[in-house]
Amino acid sequence: MILSYALDFAIGAFGLCLVLNLIRLFTGPTLTDRILAVDTMTVNALALVMLTTVRSGSNLLFEAALLLALTGFIGTVAYCKFLLRGSIIE
Amino acid sequence: MLRKLLPHPYLSLTLFVVWMLLVNQFKIGSLVMAAILALIIPHLTAAWWPDRPPIRRPLSLFAYALLVLWDVIVANFQVARIVLFMPNARIRSAWITVPLDLKTPEAITLLAGTITMTPGTLTADMSSCGRALLIHALHAPDPDAVRDDIKSRYEARLKRIFE
Amino acid sequence: MTFALEIVIAAFLVAGGIFGLIGSYGLLRLRDPMQRLHAPTKATTIGVGTALVASAFHLALQGQGVSWHELMIAIFLLLTAPVSALFLAKTHIFRTFPKSDLPDPGTGTPWATHDAAWPAKPDRINPPS
After folding, report:
1. Domain span including residue B142
2. What is the chain C residue with the closest CA to B20?
3. Predicted pLDDT at C43
4. What is the ipTM, given to two decimal places?
5. In a domain, C27, yes or no
6. N or C: which end of chain A has fewer CB within 10 A?
């Protein structure tokens, strides 16, 4: 009982996080802010995926969460490398 | 002989453990697969690992990881307090230069990561000779104290572990 | 026993949600791009970390055994957060931050981001002095 309320709260909180990050993504004055917003969005989406697995009670979405973590990190680094050097793989 | 078979024992151990965690169930088949991967991958990637990281005291590295984990939790409460309750005009951000005593690249990497994860500080850059780190502090009324804290709390321990 | 575990999981879930919110709120309200880097790297990591712990406990509560996947994702996030933060800071310094506002390295060489010869060959790091 208390668990389902807490779960609803957490899902709502991370959903709100995504909205806040979207605002920063659109307003962010510098390019770094936008990349940071996308990076944070990936991590928050990862949390949402994990909370979905808690709600549904299955462990099927684990691979999706792991892939989100991997691609989010690699995407951030690739963006930054592109801006720093003009090429991603040296 | 053993050195030739296992050029990087720590890497092999990590690969073994990570594979077992990925499979998430204890079976003989996955044990064998983990052992095969732990043996083969270090040989395939040997060109990118010219030498072993010189870990003198693996046990104190473990203690260091626990200390950092505790500091990460404390750091979060501090940053949360600053973000929630401190008005923008009162936040004193500062750039801090930390001269390094560490020499090995692995130790410097670990120190930089630790600084990013712990109270209100973030590693931003390294001098191109590798003897100083540039750190940004979110709220540091006294930058010198932050620098001394990093040097005594983390760098001294890492120096004992790696050098 | 089950009830106590449920309370613990609920506490972890609520703490995770609050920390995630603090991280995203900090990203929105701090005024300087360097300051904004601080909030997500710390608060979001711990927020997601607590959500992962709650998920791992929850599977144990249902009698599916201990799941190690959540531990793996948490360790992975803890390891990669400093790297992406470093890259973002370097990008910011390189693109928008005025060079003269940085402190002096004190080693006679410039910061790596402003050094055109970087990335150097391995023997250029820590030359014998």
Report:
1. 58-162
2. C68
3. 72
4. 0.84
5. yes
6. C
pTM of the model: 0.85
What's the CA gap between B56 and B53, in Å, rounded? 9
Q: Which of C11, C37, C47 shows the shortest C-beta gap to A36?
A: C37
CA C49 → CA A50, B58, B96, B163, C129, distances in Å? 10, 25, 29, 32, 43
Average pLDDT for chain B: 81
Cα separation of B61 and B73, whole Å? 19
Q: Looking at the 3D structure of chain C, how many domains does it have?
A: 1
Residue B53 lies in a domain: no
> How close C89 gets to chain B, by Cα (Å)?
5
| Residue pLDDT, tens place only, C72-123 | 888 888 888 888 888 888 888 888 777 777 777 777 677 777 766 655 554 4
pLDDT at site C128: 42
Contact B109, B77 (CB under 8 A): no
Are residue B103 and residue B84 in the same domain, yes or no?
Answer: yes
B85 and B9 in a single domain? The answer is no
Distance CA B40, CA B15 (A): 10
Chain C residue closest in CA terms to B112: C82
**Smallest CA–CA distance from B140 into chain C, residue:** C35
Question: Does C63 fall in a domain?
Answer: yes
Specify the pLDDT at position C129: 41
A61 Cα to chain C: minimum distance (Å): 11
On chain B, the residues whose CB falls within 8 A of the CB of C34 are: 93, 122, 124, 136
Looking at the structure, tell me whether residues B38 and B118 fall in a common domain: no
CB-CB neighbors (< 8 A) of B73 in chain C: 46
| Mean pLDDT computed over B49-68 | 78
Against chain C, the chains showing at least 3 CB pairs within 8 Å are A, B
Q: How confident is the model at residue A12 (pLDDT cuts 50, 70, 90)?
A: very high
Q: Chain C 72-101, CB below 8 Å of chain B: which residues?
A: 72, 78-79, 81-83, 85-86, 89-90, 93, 101
Asked whether residue C25 is domain-assigned, the answer is: yes
Asked if A20 lies within 8 A of C51 by C-beta distance, the reply is no
Q: Is the pLDDT of residue A67 over 80?
A: yes
